[in-house]
């Protein structure tokens, strides 16, 4: 019954993920069409189009790589999966439908779930977070009284979809972290998942707002700051990798991609880039170092924006300052509550243990693994 309930729950969650992704993409496309119909919104149209197409190409490229990892046998299903991924750019949806089919057929979908979670992570930050910053930036900097109500409504609908997509990316990665632990005693409660989600959301939300505000006054330097942070985090991920294939071009490229989400919040990616989950630096130490730099950047961006903004006499300025301070305190509060009360091991902060886990970036294809198992059984 326990396995059945988990399977039903996973099917429901997968259906929700499909609906959420569809809404996010459709709302962005409708907003882009609305921009295209207004001559005064040529810049908005170009930027929104770029923020839809470029993340889609990146995510679907990763999907093709995962398809190659999962099977080497050429069959009609693999061909359909590849065609839907390129050129139709439906890879993230194909990932979710594949989980759904495997679960309905009562087959193991753990590895596909891991791949889908990584695609969701990349899609959530490359598309949703970037789109959210862009639309918030346009809301701040553009004051077009003649803008159609439909365009304004679609912008808010797009921002809502991007927020939901980003939130789901956070939940998806957390679920996958737990998926790689076979110990049933470490199952996380619903309350723990909610508290962890709130802790991450109170970090990501202010970060996106402050980046948009900073970009409204220092557009060039916003890209410079984001680029430096991206480069440092990608290097961090690369240094933590101890696998023999870490210097392969495809793996270096994937690590560079995984560095981008770390611009917005701390994401524990140990299960991604290790052949075995060895004992590394405890997560709490890595998180402490990361958020020290993170909040120095946040308050620096806020201070520089305050220095140049024209909103010094309006209600907007004290609201931003109070909101940034309050959400930072809430972030620390939720993190403390999670690790002290809601974590599966409560006060004991988790350290990666000696778990034999295949890396989702380096493992052999599923059909090759099956052949290896069969040959070892025969011998």
Automatic annotation (TrEMBL):
GO terms for cellular component: plasma membrane. It is a multi-pass membrane protein. Coiled coil: none annotated. Its main location: membrane. InterPro entries: XK-rel, XK-related_scramblase. GO terms for biological process: apoptotic process involved in development; engulfment of apoptotic cell; phosphatidylserine exposure on apoptotic cell surface. It is found in: Cell membrane; Membrane. Pfam families: XK-related. Keywords: Cell membrane, Membrane, Transmembrane, Transmembrane helix. The chain crosses the membrane at residues 7-26, 46-67, 153-173, 194-214, 220-240, 252-273, 288-306, 315-339. Belongs to the XK family. This is XK-related protein. It comes from Pinctada imbricata.
